[in-house]
Specification:
Number of helices: 11
Strand order of the largest sheet: 1-2-3-4-5-6-7-9
Largest sheet: 8 strands, parallel, barrel
Oligomer: single chain
Length: 329
């Protein structure tokens, strides 16, 4: 591809679907991405969200790995405050042993949950305060240089799974730069600080054993379809789903009721989240991605295909790949 592209799979559970069907759709999406030359597929850790099936991120990665052959797979990301560094080193060391050379580990600082969920996870509000130290402890386990006397990650010791820092603020950018790690910015849903964060990261970057020069991955939404009308219909459906997910308080809504939510203020918030979204035909999406890469100053784009159905997401991946291929016109 003219631009290195990856996929962020949000593992959505659509209306009327089950976790099982969502996971099957994730397998199909990874296989389609592999077929069309995408670099990697990442899955994000979410908890207590009724319409997302990626809570057990490492388990999902293991399942996808068994049904693909070459594409890189990873977390985008693991919310490290929810876990001990040793447990994550063991999980991703196990994945690396199963699928050598194919595993990534993206790390986020946000707990990614509300107060009740945090309690259910047995975490404290202050868990995120030690994120930099926890990253270093995790990195040491994976390098076989444990910071805790007498403790090794098995599997995991010496696996050297590549780490990525995820973020949507200057904090993550500064930490990634200080540690010499790649930086992935969550511009697919939190776009405000994209420019400032990337500039900070590139300016402050210090080379490390893992990485000699800055490497930026920027998130972008894609809704590619065969016609402009279909792409717009898919976008409308996605906006309704987001409105219900964010403001529906666990209730079921008709399309008309979801549209009312959008008109009453949810739409403004959702449109801000979708600031960076390529919507349209393959050619229009390709043009958008070319321009967005320059705006984001990114080395790689990770694409969240937001169509409301499995078939729509698969088609979006195919159209994007065809439009961005080296031999495309």
């Amino acid at each position: 591809m003219r631009i290195p592209l990856s996929v962020l799979d949000l593992a959505p559970i659509a209306r009327g679907e089950t976790a099982s069907s969502s996971i099957a759709a994730s397998v199909a999406l990874a296989q389609r991405a592999e077929e069309h030359g995408f670099l990697r597929v990442w899955y994000a850790e979410h908890h207590n969200m009724q319409h997302i099936a990626s809570s057990a991120t490492s388990v999902l990665i293991a399942h996808i790995g068994a049904q693909t052959t070459s594409i890189r797979l990873g977390a985008g990301g693991v919310m490290l405050p929810n876990h001990s560094p040793l447990v994550i080193a063991e999980q991703f060391g196990t994945l690396e042993a199963m699928y050598p050379g194919r595993i990534d580990l993206g790390l986020g600082r946000a707990p990614g949950s509300d107060q009740n969920t945090m309690y259910a996870l047995r975490r404290e509000p202050t868990s995120a305060d030690t994120f930099p130290q926890d990253v270093l402890e995790l990195q040491a386990y994976l390098a076989g240089e444990s910071r805790v006397p007498g403790i090794d990650a098995v599997p995991g010791k010496g696996a050297r799974v590549p780490l990525y820092i995820l973020g949507s603020s200057l904090f993550g950018a500064q930490l990634a730069a200080a540690l010499g790690l790649p930086y992935a910015f969550a511009s697919h849903f939190a776009p405000q600080a994209l420019g400032a964060a990337v500039a900070t990261y590139r300016r402050e970057f210090k080379p490390s054993a893992q990485l000699g020069a800055p490497y930026v991955i920027a998130g972008v939404n894609i809704i590619a379809a065969d016609t402009v009308r279909q792409a717009q219909e898919n976008l409308d459906a996605v906006r309704r789903t987001m409105a219900v997910g964010l403001y529906g308080r666990g209730q079921s809504f008709t399309d008309e009721e979801a549209d009312l939510l959008l008109r009453r203020g949810a739409g403004q918030h959702i449109d801000q989240m979708l600031t960076y979204a390529a919507v349209g035909t393959a050619r229009e999406v390709a043009d958008y991605l070319e321009a967005f890469r320059i705006e984001a100053d990114a080395d790689e784009l990770i694409t969240a295909h937001q169509a409301p159905t499995k078939e729509g997401r698969l088609r979006s991946v195919t159209l994007t790949a065809e439009a961005m291929g080296d031999d495309s016109v």
